[in-house]
Amino acid sequence: SDNESKQQSVGIVGAGLVGCLAALAFAAKGYTVYIFELRPDPRENPNPKNLRSINLAVSDRGIRALKYVDEEMAERVLQYVIPMKGRMIHDISGTKQESQIYGLFGECINSIDRSFLNKVMLDEMTSSDKIKVLFNQKLIKLSQLTNDDETPKMTFLDLSSKSEEKKKEYEFDFIVGADGAHSQFRYQLQRFSRMNFQQQYIDMQYLELCIPPNPNSKEDNTIFSIDPNHLHIWPRHNFMLIALANQDGSFTSTFFSPWSVIESLKSADDFVEFFRFNFPDAYQLMGEESLRYSFDHQPRGSLMQVTAFPYHSPNGRALIIGDAAHSMVPFYGQGMNCGFEDVRVLMELIDSNNHDVKACFKQYSQDRHQDLLTICKLALDNYYEMSSKVTSPLYLFRKKIDYFLGKYASGRFLTWIPMYSMISFRGDIGYSDAVKIEKRQRRILNNIQNGTLGALAIFTAVKVAQYWHKLKN
Ligand code: FAD
Known about the structure:
The chain is α/β, with parallel strands linked by helices. It folds into three domains: about 1-80 and about 115-200 and about 305-380, 3-Layer(bba) Sandwich (FAD/NAD(P)-binding domain), CATH 3.50.50; about 200-300, D-Amino Acid Oxidase, Chain A, domain 2, CATH 3.30.9; about 390-470, no CATH class. Helices cover about 45% and strands about 25% of the residues. The protein is built from 16 helices and 19 strands. It has helices at about 1-5, 15-30, 60-70, 70-80, 115-125, 185-190, 215-220, 260-265, 270-280, 280-285, 290-295, 335-350, 355-385, 395-410, 420-425, 430-470; strands at about 10-15, 30-35, 55-60, 80-85, 85-90, 95-100, 110-115, 130-135, 135-145, 155-160, 165-170, 175, 195-210, 230-235, 240-245, 250-255, 300-310, 320, 325. The chain has an eight-stranded mixed sheet, sandwiched between helices. The longest helix has about 40 residues, at about 430-470. The radius of gyration is 25 Å and the shape is globular. Flavin-adenine dinucleotide binds near residues 14, 57, 254, 301 and 337. Flavin-adenine dinucleotide (FAD) binds near residues 15, 324 and 337.
């Protein structure tokens, strides 16, 4: 009951996107929350290197979870997103752009500034009397996670403390790890539970680039130099470039390539040449100077996937969520969305289990595992789709039928939802259910495709026979 939750405390590690939402969610249910963050308060110490905005795509699952936790906050956040209604494919000549719409009924994914979203949630937490936010706290140890009657203990290094003794210990009824892909919380949890764990690097590096606001904004009547309402993709099979719009008219762009490609570019000069050849229009938009700067100074990252199971401690008092539990490659734009969904799924369990949090943490592992494995795999597969398939005629043909069936043929006897729509716009369908539905649809699509190809073959054969007949006579 709510009364019971008022007596109970929750300690959360990591004030990233997922940790913040979890803190707000527990507080809304009446728990006393402490949230610990390694870094200093980003609102007080804006990092000069990070003045450029980094955006990400928020879609239905993320929005649903935000609304579940705080409808009013969600509305406030949604005022600042830029809707993207489809992909815009840029070809290698630099002159042709082709739009591929995402939603059947005008649904969009949305570009949002990562640090803005984080700031809104931090402000919300600081103004709540149920939440205490502590920055500069580095988790180094977890203990007391085995027996039912033990309450978990967390040890932090207080990086802001001037004294010799920086270690501080805290005890809570429940603890949650939301400390990201390289989670210390998860590592500590592994000392107590028989957790299966897999970390897999993919041969892909990313480099952040930037398209500045439109220099001719007055004449063109827009601050954007390309359409802001699309996710722009320059697919080049082996590597690709993407760009998402920001409120200020700029675009955050990311170059993805295998290590061998990017490492073969030894200097900024090499990179600029490579770029001019492969992405001529993007080269024009970014300018040589900015490309050089990005090559030498902008952050580069490797991409990996982390899967784990179970997510809870043996005594059911600790749980990992977000990237700490499932880090996926960014190609479906679902990492944060899925982490937000973790929070909603957990909270709904807590509601339906009358606040028996221990039972819920255990249940959560069972209920959530298949969905998390599924989205990690889908994210990996989607790289192939974005970087190559979007230009293949057969893919486009199937997409057209898929779209047509979804839009016009869905009715009482047939429900047809394209895969992308299920993942991005239908948070009411679990990730693994989406795959089951897609399998059935793919079988039908194969039949249609084979049928069409078959019909085409028969038609051609008849024509050839008629022609042959004519020649003979
Ligand atoms: P994080 O954001 O990593 O936060 C973890 C927090 O824990 C950090 O603040 C960190 O400082 C803190 N911490 C770490 N260690 C400790 C410690 N020992 N003690 C205390 N605190 C600690 N997702 C989408 O939904 N849409 C997208 O379009 C999208 N695009 C992406 C593009 C790229 C290039 C990448 C790399 C990812 C993208 N993602 C996207 C994924 C998304 O960024 C992550 O899924 C999301 O940030 C995970 O949030 P989190 O809170 O779980 O972890």
